[in-house]
């Protein structure tokens, strides 16, 4: 059985290396057990690296290993982050120093333009591991690769036996797409700053670089707005099923943004409008066309609420909210929702979007909206987030494709592929099934570049995995729905199309199981994935 498993793994990594168009296929690991002296094969990483050249002696982290960083704040910070991962499990001191030397080296300012802003190169051999990048984000992504090349036990928070080997060879790696996102709905159920940080750390491990926060919906308004204080204090006071809800103060929110940026994720805030607005409408009677505030809502219906498109106060409200949110947002994008406005007439919807999009621009941000925005007139430079299904009508798909041909960028979040709140099978205790059941293979096995008929590949800016939280209440619930599907989405966003291969991928995915165990991530043990006994 062990022999069989090893053969499958080796085949998997050979397939990967070939598919990636790498320059050499190195020796297959020989001797020892995968858990013992044999290092993880270079390239058995998620997302699959763009190119892998295996070979040469492995590097071994020992009690004299140091992390040598450039004399820059960013390199030192990333070095310290890596040391914080390595110290508890190795038990070594792992000093971070800007003196030259062998060991682990983190170097910024590479002259290799092909690495772009997020790429890196990792060279490993007997003397050490060197990660070079042009920009800090690339260095950070290289560090994530190094983590995955070490035994899973490196993620534990108590001293483990090792040995801590990194296979020899070279990885050169850059992302396919600049937008590799995850969305968390903190409205249907509220998640605390610490809970969001936990998710950020999980996302960073897979080189995800956008965290989209769905900050408002019918069931709860989650961000303090000084000029409209009741939005948070009243509109945020409950959630699906009742219960206390919650909201972020501005300081809370800044802390999320700071933490995300320390992991090289940009936070994309969303205020959903003109629909999905019951929490706001309940907080201020004035925002309603009839001047009467509805009660707070704790159910899970959609499409029943709308801002009052023909009242001026609506635009005072929108201006204030966008101004205050933009001021909290160092990132470029601000999401204005726009989905399921079933209680807004088409004409009103178009009128509303025509008035609101310039407000986003006025405060220096770029619009992103759910793809229904393409039924209005997307602003120049706007992105549309597609959340349709295979069975979405050809007409609706064509509307989005036409907008893409006219210059609107697309973020792909097909609901029957990468909605992380969809059940895996009928027996999945959490989640919804309106888009269908989404097992691990289905969520991985599609190509963003050719997904939407008639949309040019160049219009696709990336992928994003939404996690709606009607049924998701705790961090353990997040873990179970995100893992193992999230790493597949990250790979679709990062890895070259040529590496795409379910049979090779599922072997790399199985190897992540012990890592999630070590990190305390409770994942769904899909029967489609050949998990190892230890995992
Ligand atoms: C839809 C809907 C959300 C739901 C979600 C549940 C979009 C963009 N709008 O996706 O309000 O929470 O499905 O899966």
Which features would summarize this protein structure in a list?
TIM Barrel, binds ligand NGO, signal, 535 residues, EC 3.2.1.52, beta-N-acetylhexosaminidase, 7-stranded mixed beta sheet, alpha/beta, 8-stranded parallel beta sheet, 2 domains, Chitobiase, domain 2
Question: Care to describe what's here?
Answer:
This protein is of the alpha/beta class and 535 residues long. It has 2 domains: 51-173, Chitobiase, domain 2, CATH 3.30.379.10; 179-499, TIM Barrel (Alpha-Beta Barrel), CATH 3.20.20.80. Helix content is 33%, strand content 15%. It contains 16 helices and 19 strands. The chain has helices at 2-19, 73-90, 136-149, 193-205, 230-233, 250-262, 278-283, 312-327, 346-362, 394-405, 415-418, 440-444, 475-482, 485-494, 502-510, 513-519, and strands at 51-54, 59-61, 67-69, 96-97, 103-107, 120-125, 128-133, 164-166, 169-173, 179-185, 210-214, 216-217, 220-221, 266-270, 333-335, 366-370, 383-386, 409-412, 460-467. Strands 14-11-10-19-18-17-16-15 form an 8-stranded parallel β-sheet. Strands 1-9-6-7-5-3-4 form a 7-stranded mixed β-sheet. Strands 2-8 form a two-stranded antiparallel sheet. Helix 4 packs parallel to helix 6 (250-262) and helix 8 (312-327) packs parallel to helix 9 (346-362). The relative contact order is 0.11. Residues 302, 339-340, 370, 387, 419, 421, 432, 468, 470 line the site of ligand NGO. It comes from Streptomyces acidicola. It is an enzyme of class 3 (hydrolase). Residues 1-24 form the signal peptide. InterPro entries: Beta_hexosaminidase_sua/sub, GH, Glyco_hydro_20_cat, Hex-like_dom2, HEX_bac_N.
